[in-house]
Task: structure prediction
Amino acid sequence: MIRPTHEVEYEQMLLSRHGLMHHKGGRSKEGVLERSAYILLSRIRVQGPMSIGELSDAFGLDASTLNRQTAAAMRAGLVERIPDPDGGMARKFRITSEGERLLDEERQGLVRSLDRVMAEWSDTDIAAFASYLRRFNTDIERIGGRPWPRP
Result:
């Protein structure tokens, strides 16, 4: 018997192939945020300044990967290193005003894309879909032990 999760897997695969964002890290030549920078900035915006260790724990990635991502974001002017506001030894990364501006622009563009895709959906259907996505994501986060803070 094929379980409904087979359909979820297939639809999730199709969703990932559409990708409203087709970037890989830092900032593209067009000034658009790339996927890893978008996620990095989104996390720092919600949680506040974070060290490499905190980012590594949050994303489940090794420190070398986060060092490359944060270095690219620093070169692009999206984040800056600051002393730990709580007085700790590790320096932290804080989103810059340019990072905030580009994150807002990218998010607005993505919302416009979603508005086009969901133009025929009722607000009730969109809210229900968002609720299921939130539940899906929070269950993945619970299993992985890496909850993502939400605004």
Remarks:
- The first strand starts at residue 79 and ends at 82.
- Confidence is low (pLDDT under 50) at residues 22-29.
